[in-house]
Design goal:
The protein is mostly helical and 112 residues long. The chain is built from seven helices and no strands.
């Protein structure tokens, strides 16, 4: 049942109807911590840059320790939107490891 809800929410996010897109995004934002692994998997398979950004935003909203590698990996991306959500996600995570990833990226000039 949980997988069906996730799949349905992602389908809504891909809809041409704004209301459906918003409904899917809002559902996943509210339950991001429950679906963090599914969101990470979906991000890894996604090619659309705009949709990737939405997925990374949801991963950031999850504030889940298991998201740290995904967020840290996106600190070096050329896509400014993805980089923004990677930074924001690590800031919201607020762990020592997240702070270290941010400090390293700053020292390497990948973020400011």
């Amino acid at each position: 049942m949980t997988e069906q809800r996730f799949t349905r929410a992602v389908e809504w996010m891909r809809s041409k109807d704004f209301g459906e897109r918003e409904k899917g995004f809002d559902f996943l934002r509210e339950h991001a911590d429950s679906y963090v692994e599914e969101l990470i998997d979906a991000l890894a398979r996604e090619d659309d840059p705009g949709f990737r950004c939405l997925l990374l935003e949801l991963i950031a909203e999850a504030r889940a320790p298991q998201a740290l590698p995904t967020l840290a990996r996106h600190l070096g991306t050329m896509d400014e939107s993805l980089r923004f959500w990677a930074v924001r996600g690590l800031e919201m995570l607020g762990t020592r490891e997240a702070d270290q990833a941010l400090a390293q990226a700053r020292a390497e000039g990948r973020i400011f």
